[in-house]
């Protein structure tokens, strides 16, 4: 399908309201999307996706919002009815009458396929265009610019190589690639070393920073955010003892063999049962009471690649 045909398809399927919204957001500085922005949910303002929590749903009044916001509207109905009160016109729609907006979902899939071709993939990244586009979606803004600041295969595999390349940058996406699995973690802070190089620095991100894990390929039908505890551990340059060199949130460690680890690609990871989103098709643990997902295919593994991307502005 050519871009022109796809655009015609989108126009027929989406209707005037959406196109006006797209045109308005494009003219307001939609960024790297080549003049086309992705329509956003009228409630949460997140970009729509063709599937999952961010797929558009239509109410009886004709207005749409994402699946997650429909659930929220029903949960917060002022009189406790199983109904969604439209955030735009206040009309109520009974829960059983809320429908997926199939036409808009198909249009979204076509639009995202075109839009994906318009983003600037960072120079030197290990991510495919599709993986990179998925990461931008999870970050919540396809106009963000990311920079590949560290790759184990390019910059060296020691902890010192990682620290040298990352420096004092903040807002970091750690990407771990193992076989067909691509996953990792985002931290809004940087890697803060302890004052004593033989010690640890552990910081709690409940207040001043944000931590979440993600999958870009191999675990879910689409790129998916995974909740995590809000803490980061960073070992001093001369630290020896337990654990790895960098721990990001719950049970995700880089550099776990030898202290300081000879190789940052030596990883350890598992996800707690209650944090695994629906639709997971990757490897599960033998003891599902504690742990339910092994994103790298086993608890401990040597990654094929570790990359750190610096998440810049728009
Ligand atoms: Zn929404
Ligand atoms: Zn409405």
Description:
It is elongated and about 65 Å long. It has 2 domains: 3-115, Zinc/RING finger domain, C3HC4 (zinc finger) (Herpes Virus-1), CATH 3.30.40.10; 122-311, no CATH class. Residues 1-33 have low confidence and may be disordered. The protein is 23% helix and 25% strand. With 314 residues, it is of the alpha+beta class. The two termini are 30 Å apart. Helix 1 crosses helix 3. The strands form 5 sheets. It has a 6-stranded antiparallel β-sheet, sandwiched between helices. It has helices at 3-27, 67-75, 102-116, 129-139, 152-155, 159-166; strands at residues 56-58, 64-66, 83-85, 92-94, 99-100, 146-151, 172-178, 181-187, 200-204, 211-217, 224-226, 231-235, 246-248, 252-254, 266-269, 271-272, 291-293, 300-302, 305-311. The chain contains 6 helices and 19 strands. The chain binds zinc ion (2 copies). Residues 41, 43-44, 46, 65-66, 68-69 line the site of one zinc ion. Residues 41-90 form the RING-type domain. Residues 1-28 form the signal peptide. InterPro entries: RING_finger_E3_ubiq-ligases, TLDc_dom, Znf_RING, Znf_RING/FYVE/PHD. This is RING-type domain-containing protein.
């Amino acid at each position: 399908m050519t871009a022109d045909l796809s655009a015609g398809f989108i126009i027929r399927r989406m209707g005037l309201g959406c196109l006006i919204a797209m045109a308005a957001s494009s003219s307001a500085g939609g960024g790297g999307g080549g003049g086309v922005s992705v329509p956003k949910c009228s409630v949460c303002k997140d970009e729509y996706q063709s599937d999952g929590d961010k797929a558009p749903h239509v109410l009886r009044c004709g207005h749409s919002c994402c699946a997650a916001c429909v659930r929220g509207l029903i949960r917060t109905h002022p009189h406790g009815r199983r109904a969604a009160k439209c955030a735009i016109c206040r009309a109520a729609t009974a829960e059983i009458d809320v429908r997926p907006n199939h036409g808009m979902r198909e249009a979204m899939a076509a639009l995202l396929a075109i839009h994906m071709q318009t983003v600037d993939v960072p120079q030197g990244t290990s991510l495919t265009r599709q993986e990179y586009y998925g990461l931008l979606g999870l970050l919540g803004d396809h106009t963000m610019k990311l920079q590949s600041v560290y790759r184990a295969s390019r910059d060296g595999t020691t902890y010192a190589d990682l620290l040298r390349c990352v420096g004092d940058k903040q807002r970091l996406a750690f990407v771990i690639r193992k076989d067909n699995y691509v996953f990792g973690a985002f931290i809004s802070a940087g890697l803060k070393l302890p004052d004593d190089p033989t010690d640890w620095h552990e910081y709690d991100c409940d207040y001043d920073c944000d931590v979440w894990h993600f999958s870009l390929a191999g675990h879910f039908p689409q790129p998916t955010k995974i909740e995590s505890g809000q803490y980061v551990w960073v070992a001093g340059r001369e630290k020896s003892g337990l654990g790895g060199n960098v721990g990001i949130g719950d049970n995700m460690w880089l550099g776990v063999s030898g202290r300081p680890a000879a190789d940052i690609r030596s990883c350890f990871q598992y996800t707690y049962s209650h944090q695994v989103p629906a639709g997971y098709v990757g490897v599960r643990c033998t003891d599902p009471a504690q742990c339910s997902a092994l994103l790298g295919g086993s608890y401990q593994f040597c990654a094929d690649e570790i990359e750190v991307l610096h998440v810049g502005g728009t």
